[in-house]
Design a protein that fits this description.
By secondary structure, the protein is an all-alpha fold. It has 2 domains: about 5-100; about 105-260. The chain is about 70% helix and about 0% strand. The termini are far apart. It comes from Siminovitchia thermophila. This is Abortive infection protein-like C-terminal domain-containing protein. Pfam families: Abi_C. InterPro entries: Abi-like_C.
Length: about 260
């Protein structure tokens, strides 16, 4: 259980005079909605920092750990530790150690996001499949969440490689749109889709799968606070989410490699 001192430490670390890291108001709402299913500023109608503190005071431990873990991943992925004050940079290892202590899923989640630009390749995809398969029976909700995160990591990596800008708070749906346009996979623009209705149907189904995974992750995955009537989906649905995600990742990744001349 998170103690009173733990929660106070977390609140103090992230509430910087009403600000939270380098988020704008809309970015913060988008980020927290994507993380725990709640746009905090809209919910509490306060500054970003004060809304964060209210959430810490009211949320259950699982929701707090999820949001803080995602914020740590954001700091690492965006490489913005230097934006922290000297005092907070010194406290940052303590924050990470605290989350490591309480979050049983942090190891998997951090390997999925940290240094993804350097790590993302065919071997990396295979390793994530192995990890998800090891979790699917005991924790299907985690696998649903990680299936969506694998898609998100793939899309971000490709956009990074093309030097395409995207918002830190972009949803996986928004990232998919950018990537599909860049790789000419949009069913409305793709030449093969225009000439072959079956190809168009398949590419269109990819869009629906991404949209579905994004919604399912908030509803049944590890990214949304659960009410007392929450029931976990059967394992077979977690396997479906995992396999659907991997199909799109493989196809998108192969298309990217073909685009840059590393795959035929």
């Amino acid at each position: 259980m998170l103690s009173f001192n733990d929660k106070n430490f977390i609140s103090t670390f992230f509430n910087d005079g009403g600000y939270v890291l380098n988020f704008s108001n809309s970015e913060f709402d988008d980020f927290t909605l994507n993380s725990v299913g709640i746009p905090l500023q809209t919910q509490y109608k306060l500054s970003k920092g004060k809304s964060f503190v209210e959430f810490i005071n009211q949320a259950d431990d699982g929701e707090i750990i999820k949001l803080v873990t995602d914020l740590i991943e954001y700091i690492e992925y965006q490489n913005i530790e230097d934006l922290l004050t000297v005092e907070k940079r010194n406290l940052y290892p303590k924050l990470k150690a605290l989350m490591s202590k309480f979050s049983t899923n942090q190891t998997f989640s951090s390997t999925l996001v940290t240094d993804v630009k350097e790590k993302f390749n065919d071997v990396y995809i295979a390793s994530q499949l192995s990890i998800m398969m090891s979790l699917v029976e005991e924790s299907p909700s985690d696998v649903i969440g990680k299936s969506k995160e694998l898609l998100e990591s793939c899309f971000k990596h490709i956009l990074d490689e093309f030097d395409e800008e995207y918002s830190p708070s972009s949803t996986v749906v928004q990232l998919r749109k950018q990537v599909f346009l860049k790789l000419n996979l949009d069913p409305k623009e793709n030449v093969s889709a225009k000439n072959n209705n079956d190809v168009k149907k398949i590419l269109s189904s990819f869009i629906q799968v991404v949209d579905g995974l994004n919604s399912l992750r908030n509803d049944k995955g590890d990214g949304h606070g659960k009410g007392k009537n929450y029931t976990e989906l059967p394992v077979r649905y977690a396997k479906l989410a995992m396999n659907a995600s991997l199909t799109i990742v493989h196809f998108t990744w192969d298309t990217y490699k073909m685009h840059i001349g590393k795959y035929k």
